[in-house]
C-alpha cells in the first residue's frame, strides 16, 4: 500500500510539473507570435494580430491545476512551510502527539475544503457555468483539477496522520533534517 500511495503523490507532482510546462509553452508561443507580428510590421508595414485567444485565461487554469496537483507531493517531500520552532524543542513523546494533532487538524480542514470544492464543481456543472471571453470553457473542467488535487492532499494528510500515530517518523521530517544540515554547514563555513 505504501508504494501505491508514494507513487500517487509522485504522479501528482509530475502532473503539476506538466501544467507548469504548459504555462511556459503557452506564454512562449504567445511571445513568439507577438514577435512575429512586430517583425511583419517592420518588414511589410502590416501586423496580423497573431495571438492565442484566451492565453492568459488558460495560463490561469493551468496555474490552478499545477498548484493543487503539487500540494500532496510537496507536503510529503517536506517542501511546505511549517512553523516548527516550538515543535522541534519538545520531548520526543510530546512532539509525536503534537504532530498527530497538527496532521489530523490539517486532514479535517483539507477534507472540508475538498467537499466544498466538489460542491462548487457540481454546481458549475449543473448550472452550465462557462468562462467569459472568446472561448467559453465550462468551469467545471478546470475546477475538477482543483478537487482532484485536494483529494490527493487529504489522502496524504490522513496517511501522514496514521503514519505518525503508529510511531513512524513523518515523511516531511526528512526535509527538516536537510534544512538543519544545511544551516549547520553554513554556520561551519562562517566560523572558518
Automatic annotation (TrEMBL):
Stretches of the chain forming a coiled coil according to its record: none
Give the quaternary structure. The complex comprises the extracytoplasmic solute receptor protein and the two transmembrane proteins.
Q: How does it sit in the membrane?
A: Multi-pass membrane protein
Concerning InterPro entries, the annotation shows: DctQ, TRAP_DctQ
The identity of this protein, by name, is TRAP transporter small permease protein
Span-the-membrane segments of this chain are: 12-36, 56-75, 96-115, 135-158
- The Tripartite ATP-independent periplasmic transporters DctQ component domain extends over 52-165
Q: Which keywords belong to this entry?
A: Cell inner membrane, Cell membrane, Membrane, Transmembrane, Transmembrane helix, Transport
User: What domain of life does the UniProt record list for this protein's source?
Assistant: Bacteria
Q: Which Pfam families match?
A: DctQ
Family as reported in the entry's similarity comment: Belongs to the TRAP transporter small permease family.
The free-text function statement in the UniProt record for this protein reads:
Part of the tripartite ATP-independent periplasmic (TRAP) transport system.
Subcellular location field: Cell inner membrane
